[in-house]
Design brief:
Elements (H helix, E strand, L loop, with lengths): L3 E6 L2 H11 L7 E5 L5 E3 L2 E3 L1 H10 L17 H8 L10 H15 L4 H11 L5 E4 L6 E6 L2 E4 H7 L8 E5 L8 H8 L3 E6 L4 H9 L4 H5 L6 E4 L2 E2 L2 E2 L4 H7 L6 H8 L5 E5 L6 H5 L5 E4 L6 H18 L1
Length: 315
């Protein structure tokens, strides 16, 4: 495909497709914008889980089984902290901690998160452009019977057990999309926008909720396609399906397509969801039905290539 590609990503599912895309287009033609709503400050360091998952995946360093952190990690820091009675519910590996320490130091020097991310990517030989959705702090919170919970408290500490009835992105109204993101959106060379198979509510929505982003995507000259994170009524990983049920939505791919609504020019579903096709087409959306489960390198590249071909057919 000719032209630049912009991918909007959360953590593991998005990172896998971003990796596939990185094998299909030249590094200077691919820009990945990651959700930063999951970010938080913990044990004195700035943690950006989705940025790091994409960065480690593109660098070939990710722990693919765990879905976050680094392959071959050691946990001396957590063990020592545990012995001292410190907080260990959010597990920071020894080498992963170096990323957070370096990020925290660079932020303290006054660099923007966008520049810090570029610096970390350079150090890890990631050649694609990886951007935080914003340099401004946006913090996802979920409302449960316990009141509002910070995202990582809900997701990791409480293992998504509390029932959710609302989600908010604290700081979103005063946040601006990162400079590189805004530039990518107006780049005349942009030829495809891919919403990765990430959680629509807590991974993609924070990106879309940034001022002017949704408006920029609706009616963009480049086709906007999304890959369903729901396959056969379930999410491969994470609480997307549970959230859909809690938000009184049917748990199916067509409900995700309807949720994104007029943002989309096309929707990608898994082969297991052929029965969803007509409902999505009834929304006026062209459908691509392929294998969307990315268990191998080949599957990641194949899905990326399928997405790019689909986008090209829509433009
Ligand atoms: N997820 C977990 O389920 N347990 C953890 O202890 C954990 C630690 C962690 C450390 C660094 C990091 O970048 C991510 C980490 N994650 C952990 C993943 C993260 O909480 C979520 O997967 C994302 O926020 C959702 O995309």
């Amino acid at each position: 495909m000719s032209g630049k590609v912009l991918a909007l990503s959360g953590g593991v599912g998005g990172a896998k497709l971003a990796f596939g895309l990185s094998q299909c287009v030249a590094a200077d033609q691919l820009c990945i914008v990651a959700n930063t709503g999951d970010d938080f400050s913990h044990l004195g360091v700035a943690i950006c889980p989705d940025l790091d998952t994409v960065m480690y995946t593109l660098a070939g360093l990710a722990n693919a089984v765990q879905g976050w952190g680094l392959e071959g990690e050691s946990w001396q820091l957590m063990s020592a902290l545990d012995r001292l009675g410190g907080e260990t519910w959010f597990r920071l590996g020894d080498r992963d901690m170096a990323t957070h320490l370096r990020r925290t130091a660079l932020l303290a020097e006054g660099l923007s998160l966008e520049r810090v991310t570029a610096s970390l990517c350079r150090a890890l030989s990631v050649e694609q452009t990886l951007l935080p959705m914003s340099d401004d702090p946006v913090r996802t919170q979920v409302h449960t019977t316990q009141g509002w919970l910070a995202f990582q408290d809900y997701f990791v500490r409480q293992q998504c057990a509390p029932q959710i009835d609302a989600i908010r992105f604290q700081g979103i109204d005063s946040a601006t999309a990162a400079q590189g993101f805004r530039q990518a959106l107006v780049d005349p060379a942009l030829s495809a926008i891919v919403i990765c198979p990430s959680n629509p509510f807590v991974s993609v929505d924070p990106i879309l909720a940034l001022p002017d982003v949704r408006e920029a995507l609706i009616g963009h000259a480049a086709p906007v396609i999304a890959v369903s994170p729901i396959i056969a009524g379930a999410a491969l990983k994470g609480p997307a399906a549970k959230m859909m049920a809690a938000l009184a939505m049917p748990v199916c791919a067509s409900a995700v397509a309807a949720y994104y609504g007029d943002l989309l020019d096309g929707f990608v579903i898994d082969n297991a969801d052929s029965s969803e096709r007509s409902a999505i087409e009834a929304l006026g959306l062209p459908v691509l039905q392929v294998n969307t489960i990315m268990r191998s390198t080949e599957a990641k590249i194949a899905l990326a290539a399928d997405c790019l071909e689909f986008a090209a057919s829509l433009s």
